[in-house]
Design goal:
With about 280 residues, the chain is of the alpha+beta class. About 20% of the residues lie in helices and about 25% in strands. The protein has two domains: about 120 residues, no CATH class; about 110 residues, no CATH class. It binds zinc ion. Zinc ion (ZN) binds next to loops.
């Protein structure tokens, strides 16, 4: 190896400090792959990838960059704003290659109010090495974005627990939980988007709903996966509604009575109150 500089699948000239710059072909193709064309909910992000420029580095080291419209609506060239908390993950996938596992993370668009206005952070890194060489052999790739109801876990290929949350409009959401990967996500049938749900925050809502106060259980989110069969669809639905009230991932609207118990509705109102208990995992 001639250099240890992380190339991110492109020459170091392209990843130099000159900003704004265009996405490299590898970055562009990888980010668009995280945003399936056939799902309407990904179109806005696809347009951002197609038209925005890399305006600088993020705070997480090599491979972490920030995209923005070069001419933003305030008429100024955007500068990366890394002072705000890291935005939640919008899309995630892994490309398994002869050079290691390359992970790609795209965060939610941040819409500010001043000249920084819009920015979109992504991270493409080799999980097994410092660098991503310009050429490698691809073995497999998977992401969450392609998932839809009835499919197996994209990570491990195993069966996932699915909970259907029926809106009164008839358009359902599917909450999916993979115990072997310890991941959960929600699929929105209205736009096809798959939102990753941070385990800790979801579990907090579940414990509130179940009124579990024993810290041995209430503070250990791993119980969610270990004891998954002990939670009913209604419990898990209530936990999701509580979570979504705090960190809105989807437009829930009214939920059909058949999928939510009366107690879940109580939990919904109760959980909307104290915001200070938001803790933990930042997906
Ligand atoms: Zn899995």
């Amino acid at each position: 190896m001639s250099t240890s500089f992380p190339t991110n699948g492109q020459s170091s000239q392209q990843t130099g400090s000159a900003f704004p710059r265009a996405l490299s072909e590898f970055e562009r193709a990888t980010l668009l792959w995280l945003l399936p064309e056939h799902k309407p909910g990904y179109q806005h992000y696809r347009r951002c990838i197609e038209t925005w420029k890399v305006i600088g580095r993020g705070r997480r080291g090599e491979g972490n960059f920030i995209l923005a419209p070069v001419e933003n609506p305030a008429g100024k060239t955007g500068a990366p704003d890394t002072s705000a908390p890291l935005a939640p993950v919008f899309a995630y996938g892994v490309i398994e290659t002869s050079a290691g596992k390359i992970s790609a993370t795209l965060r939610e668009v941040e819409e500010g109010q001043s000249q920084r206005d819009f920015q979109l952070e992504f991270e493409i890194v080799n999980l097994d090495s410092e660098t991503i060489p310009e050429t490698f052999e691809e073995r497999r790739r998977w992401n969450f974005s392609e998932w839809s109801s009835g499919a197996q876990c994209p990570m491990c290929g195993q069966h996932v627990r699915e909970i259907t949350i029926q809106r009164v409009t008839g358009i359902a959401l599917t909450l999916a939980i993979c115990p072997s990967d310890k991941r959960l996500w929600i699929y929105d049938g209205s736009d096809g988007v798959v939102h990753l749900i941070p385990v800790t925050n979801f579990y907090n809502e579940l414990m509130m709903h179940k009124r579990v106060r024993d810290p041995e259980i209430a503070l250990d989110s791993q119980h969610l996966f270990r004891d998954l069969s002990s939670y009913s669809d209604s419990d898990l639905t209530a936990a999701f509604i509580g979570y979504n009230n705090l960190r809105k991932k989807v437009e829930l609207g009214a939920i059909a009575q058949t999928t939510v118990s009366r107690r879940s509705f109580f939990s919904k109102f109760f959980s909307a109150l104290p915001k200070s208990r938001q803790t933990g995992l930042k997906l």
